[in-house]
């Protein structure tokens, strides 16, 4: 089972690397197969088409969130941890992936008839948010009169909206700088009163 999951992740990582280097349209399934040293059968066992890879962008981010979760200072204010998380997200999107690829990923989710991976509550992203918010409520950093699920919803809506706006504005501003500033204003309401 683990080998199967590793093959899937290997294909996904190679595809996104190629998409970033060559562009989505210019990358072929054969190039993805060659980069992963697998077969067409293996590729089509996990994915129906190249388009399927677009909706799985969230899993690439989950790898970064796993790395980040062990790097964040455990003693840091939980409210501030949320901003470390969004800064990492915005920075990665802005610096590591072409804007048109991010826009395509959002579009793929809009028109997908299958599971929408961005909304998968079992993702590392949602587990990390829940952990930070629950810890923040217990420590008195984040208000406790709202359910963690409600705060998570607030956070994710704001984050996705900022990425979407950056895409439709054709990246005319720094997503990290503007996004973090807006998230701070938006999430101020969840901060516990001193």
Give a short overview:
The chain is mainly α and 194 residues long. The protein has helices at residues 2-22, 29-36, 40-46, 50-54, 57-71, 78-96, 99-111, 124-139, 148-168, 175-187. Helix 1 (2-22) crosses helix 2.
Please characterize this protein's 3D structure.
The structure is a single chain. The termini are far apart. The protein has 194 residues and is mostly helical. It has two domains: 49 residues, Arc Repressor Mutant, subunit A; 136 residues, Tetracycline Repressor, domain 2, CATH 1.10.357. Helix 6 packs antiparallel against helix 8 and helix 9 packs antiparallel against helix 10. The chain has ten helices and no strands. It is 71% helix and 0% strand.
């Amino acid at each position: 089972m683990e080998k199967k999951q590793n093959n899937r992740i290997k294909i996904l990582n190679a595809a996104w690397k190629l998409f970033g280097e060559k562009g989505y349209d210019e990358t072929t399934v054969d190039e993805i197969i060659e980069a992963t040293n697998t077969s067409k059968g293996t590729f089509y066992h996990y994915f129906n088409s190249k388009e399927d890879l677009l909706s799985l962008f969230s899993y690439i981010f989950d790898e970064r969130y796993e790395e980040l979760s062990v790097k964040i200072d455990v003693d840091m204010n939980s409210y501030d941890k949320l901003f470390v998380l969004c800064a990492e997200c915005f920075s990665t999107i802005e610096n590591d992936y072409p804007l048109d690829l991010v826009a395509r990923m959002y579009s793929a989710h809009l028109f997908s008839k299958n599971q929408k991976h961005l909304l998968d509550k079992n993702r590392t992203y949602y587990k990390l948010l829940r952990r930070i918010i629950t810890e923040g409520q217990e420590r008195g950093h984040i208000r406790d009169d709202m359910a963690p699920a409600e705060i998570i919803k607030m956070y994710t809506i704001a984050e996705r909206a900022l990425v979407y706006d950056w895409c439709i504005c054709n990246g005319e501003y720094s997503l990290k700088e503007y996004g973090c500033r807006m998230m701070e204003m938006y999430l101020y309401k969840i901060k516990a009163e001193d």
